[in-house]
Write a structure and sequence with these properties.
The protein contains ten helices and eight strands. By secondary structure, it is α/β, with parallel strands linked by helices. The chain has a single domain, classed as Alpha-Beta Barrel (TIM Barrel), CATH 3.20.20.70. Helix 7 runs parallel beside helix 8. The site of phosphoenolpyruvate (PEP) has 15 residues, from strand 8. InterPro entries: Aldolase_TIM, TIM_sf, TrioseP_Isoase_bac/euk, Triosephosphate_isomerase, Triosephosphate_isomerase_AS.
């Protein structure tokens, strides 16, 4: 939790399989969560092919739309790719560097940095993912790994783009495994990311929101957003259930409402 507005982003991955089911999920989130989306920033990231349909449903709401990936070239002979410039016409957000893109599709830190740069240039807000593998976690190298990934991502990034950037810390061993990171571990690793941002951008580093992701659900989301350096969560599996997602939204809103109450005392 910080002074920033909290953000809850839903990564639907390769789900749902039909347009009808995607529309139903989007309507479910909107129906149950729209009131809370005035207190918590909410971003839904469906597969490319459902972006248009979901955009129509979210139109006139506070809930924003994101893609799960993009390509760095604007146009050209790149069969099967979708550019950041194309996405900018449909959504406000894009995820880059998700660990499934890195592990299944061979994306390197350098490729992710190019995607990030292209997305920022297209005026998209970006959720850039970093996170250590299980062996780095086991050998106590989590902070070093994410610091190195963050350095590569930041590349030539310009100060005026910082507001568009969100960094999601997602330990790879926690994604989809049901084994979420201990909040203390998330705290110390995210502190390393913030430190890198500070070294590079000084005070402006606080403009970048940091999320935790990895087996987050309604029952544990508060434990992460209560951390002083955590501004929200990136949710995979649990975001496919509108009721569960709305419970997470309510839990995040409650943490922030409690903090505002304490500050006012
Ligand atoms: C993710 O896909 O970014 C993610 C965190 O997945 P899950 O919540 O299912 O672990």
């Amino acid at each position: 939790m910080s002074h920033q507005r909290p953000l809850l982003a839903a990564n639907w991955k390769l789900n749902p399989v039909t347009a009808e089911a995607a529309a139903e999920l989007a309507r479910g989130v909107l129906g149950r969560g729209e009131r809370l989306s005035t207190e918590v920033d909410v971003v839904l990231c469906p597969p490319y092919c459902w972006l248009l349909g979901v955009a129509e449903i979210l139109h006139d709401s506070h809930v924003e739309l994101g893609a799960q990936n993009c390509y760095w070239e604007r146009s050209g002979a790149y069969t099967g790719e979708v550019s950041a410039a194309m996405l900018a016409g449909w959504c406000q957000w894009v995820i880059v560097g998700h660990s499934e893109r890195r592990s299944h599709f061979g994306e390197t830190d350098e490729m992710v940095a190019r995607k990030l740069a292209a997305a920022l240039e297209s005026d998209l807000n970006v959720i850039a993912c970093v996170g250590e593998q299980a062996d780095d976690f086991d050998s106590g190298r989590s902070a070093d790994t994410v610091a190195r990934q963050t350095d590569v991502l930041l590349g030539e990034m310009e100060l005026h783009r910082l507001r568009q950037l969100v960094i999601a810390y997602e330990p790879v061993w926690a994604i989809g495994s049901g084994r979420s990171a201990e909040p203390e571990h998330a705290y110390s690793t995210m502190r390393a990311i913030r430190q890198r941002l500070r070294e590079r951008f000084d005070q402006a580093a606080t403009e970048v929101r940091l999320l935790y992701g990895g087996s987050v659900k309604a029952a544990n989301v508060a434990a992460y957003v209560e951390l002083p350096n955590c501004d929200g969560c990136l949710i995979g599996g649990a975001s496919l259930d509108a009721l569960e997602f709305s419970r997470m939204l309510a839990a995040v809103a409650e943490v922030y409402a409690g903090a505002a109450g304490r500050a006012a005392e």
